[in-house]
Amino acid sequence: MRSICYIPSIDCLVYRSTEYWLGQFAQRSGMPATDVVFPAIVEAEPAYPSRYGQTAARLGQFNWLGQWVQDARHQHPQLRVWAAINPTISSLSNGMIATRDQWNEPMSDTCINHVVVQQMLTQIINELADLQVDGITFDLTDLYPNSTSSRYPKLDQGEQLIQNSCFCTYCIDKFAEISQFQLDPEHFRGKRNITRHILRASDQGATFIELRDSWMDSLDVDSLVRFSAARGFIERDDPHREDDGRQLLCYANARAAVTADAIARLRQTAYHRGLRTAVVLGTAQFDISSGTSMAALVNRSASDEYWSSDAETRVNIREHPLVIFNERRATYAYNALFANLRTLEDPREYSNEADRIGHVISITGAAIEHSPFSSSSCAVLQIIPNIAGIAGIPYTMQDFIEWIRQRHTDRQFPQRRMMLILSHVRNPAPDERRGGAAGRDPFA
Ligand SMILES: [Zn+2]
What spacing in Å lies between the alpha carbon of 111 and ligand 1's midpoint? Predict the structure, then answer.
């Protein structure tokens, strides 16, 4: 049984060692780690000197990733070492390689189908191979953002439209090349947006429905429409529900294949450098933020391994090991948390600072407080057949509080902002506290 300690952000390793996280992981899961994942390029700058940028200023110009890998190899020769890439590489994005919404506006992350982004990722994989990692993980949990945006204000009755992605020329060309579906941004504009069956605006951005493999395989519009209406995403008397539902299923099949094709090309580069690849998925089903499904990825042999929050039973685990990611939606909420914390380090005052901080901490709550990762959940997963291993993020609320305090000590957060952040953090439950600190006020 594999057990994978996933370290989600460079920030985790600024104040704490690899040994600390491996220890936390063993305590949390009830088993020692067989694999460790280090952040190479996730929500921020690279963790090593890359052709595409130096390490973050606060880390200093040093090959941190190289050092983490060497230390891990020295102290734990049996450990398999992975480097994590978030292929949206937001820190390297610009208007020419960014994802585009249905009105052709550039967004903040890069598009994996863009030829230049593929070149950059190829180069990054080669750099990571030189650092002697064993494998690379591609985090697909938020490859194509689909949510509300302040750029598009609410309509008259408070209704808000969703900003979809991606409609860049590389996506449109790739759809034409490998599918029958013509990607037309017009189908995603206005009230008849075909994603209304599975996406609905909410206070947090958007709520969503995942598309089941069975609906996609047989274009089962009836089941999609009935479930979508039952969940309140579409009106029961929507006159276009059938036609648009069919369009949505055809779109999803094409998008899933296009994304799998892009990942499969990256796997080829990794394979030629002797590296394994793993994809990180929030779910095995088609999720519109990932723009793919496990079935589509397996169909194109896009990866050596699949790490997902839930399972696709058709995966042959001899050929494609299936690891259960012991977090809801895998890395999704942690990525958002660390990206948002970075924006809070901006010393300028925000007009709505309290609201903004409250929002960040509500994401923290979802990611950390309600994390299912525990020794009991791991014990259950170990007896379920056809699972090759578990992955988990050993990050607790106590780690978060200590990190905020350290950043204040290092003058990244002014006192007032630190207090505002901590005022939103719920006191950790006694079993989350460490070192006999039970009963002590974490803010004292
Ligand atoms: Zn695109």
Answer: 5
What is the domain-level CATH number for residue 156?
3.20.20
Do the domain assignments include residue 12? yes
Q: Distance, CA 174 to ligand 1 centroid (Å)?
A: 9
End-to-end CA distance of the chain: 41
- Domain count of the chain? 1
Query: Does residue 401 lie within any of the structural domains?
Result: no
Host domain of residue 288 = 2-328+371-395
- How remote is the CA of residue 169 from the centroid of ligand 1, in Å? 7
Q: Which residues are near ligand 1, the ion (C-beta closer than 5 Å)? A: 111, 113, 166, 168, 171
356: CB partners within 8 A, 6+ apart: 344, 350
Of the pLDDT bands very low, low, confident and very high (cuts 50, 70, 90), residue 243 is very high
Model-level pTM?
0.92
**pLDDT above 70 as % of the chain:** 93
Q: What average pLDDT does this structure show over 152-178?
A: 89
| Distance from the alpha carbon of residue 332 to the mean position of ligand 1, in angstroms | 20
Dist. CA 304–CA 280, nearest whole Å: 12
Tell me, in angstroms, the distance from the centre of ligand 1 to residue 179's CA: 15
Q: Which two tokens stand for residue 315?
A: 């995966």
